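Long-time lurker, first post. I've been practising inverse folding by hand and with some scripts of my own, and I keep getting stuck on stretches where the structure tokens seem ambiguous. Below is the full token string for one chain I'm working on. Before anyone asks, I'm not after the true native sequence, just a reasonable design that respects the backbone. If someone could post their per-position residues I'd love to compare against what I wrote down in my notebook.
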């Protein structure tokens, strides 16, 4: 469909070698975009242009931005997908200063750092789309499981909204996509670790987690490709009047009007 065509567009997808990031990279490439992916470690093989970078390292972010400028002349689409739950559960008493700093650096500061490096070129061309991949945890924290992660994603939501307001008159759209439970390797590992610590099966662990969040009305986790399809729409010309909004893709799990 022409309104979803991304031919001639250049996109950077961070964390683009696995899970949601890989699905987004494949989706945008199928729509005609030139796709660059970044991660700390190179994949065994990929059809996309790969640049190694640790986005928690300011020098590596600067090098990534420079290489993109030199090799591609900039980008039109930035998907800030890097992030993850890296801190222990157990509530506030289990989290040290280092835990908080680690989670905020990975899930918030890395996006801010990369935006700052790449936005000047978008501003100069008076066009571009920035997508921040957040999480429904940013609206529904589970104190015993993901407190620091949820806080970091809530901060990302707020930053994304503020940035969208600043950049709207400069021709740049900024949007946030907040997946719920999605069938990725990190999610499977989280479920297995949670279940092992509780002495239950992964199936029972999933039931317990869903009980805490109110369940998933659609009865299953999302596939990474379903998140990618939403991102594709949001970066396409069909979404030209959309900016500043958070889009939850969670099978109806958030128990509030948002």
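-- Answer (accepted) --
I ran through it position by position. Result:
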């Amino acid at each position: 469909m022409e309104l979803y065509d991304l031919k001639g567009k250049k996109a950077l997808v961070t964390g683009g070698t696995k899970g949601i990031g890989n699905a987004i990279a494949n989706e945008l490439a199928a729509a005609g975009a030139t796709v660059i992916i970044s991660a700390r470690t190179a994949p065994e093989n990929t059809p996309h242009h790969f640049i190694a970078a640790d986005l928690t390292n300011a020098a590596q972010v600067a090098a990534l931005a420079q290489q993109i400028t030199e090799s591609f002349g900039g980008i039109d689409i930035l998907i800030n997908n890097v992030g993850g739950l890296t801190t222990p559960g157990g509530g506030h008493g289990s989290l040290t200063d280092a835990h908080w700093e680690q989670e905020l650096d990975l899930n918030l500061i890395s996006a801010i750092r990369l935006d700052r490096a790449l936005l000047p070129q978008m501003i100069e061309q008076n066009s571009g789309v920035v997508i921040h991949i957040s999480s429904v945890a940013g609206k529904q924290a589970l104190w015993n499981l993901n407190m620091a992660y949820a806080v970091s994603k809530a901060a990302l939501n707020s930053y994304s909204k503020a940035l969208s307001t600043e950049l709207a008159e400069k021709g740049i759209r900024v949007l946030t996509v907040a997946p719920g439970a999605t069938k990725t390797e990190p999610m499977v590992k989280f479920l297995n670790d949670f279940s092992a610590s509780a002495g239950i099966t992964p199936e029972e662990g999933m039931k317990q987690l869903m009980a805490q969040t109110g369940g998933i009305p659609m009865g299953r986790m999302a596939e990474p490709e379903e998140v990618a399809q939403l991102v594709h729409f949001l970066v396409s010309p069909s979404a030209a009047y959309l900016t500043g909004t958070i889009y939850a893709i969670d099978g109806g799990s958030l128990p509030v009007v948002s």
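A couple of notes from the structure itself: Helices lie at 19-30, 58-72, 97-125, 147-167, 185-198, 202-213, 224-235. The chain has two domains: 2-181+222-249, 184-220. Happy to go over any region you disagree with.
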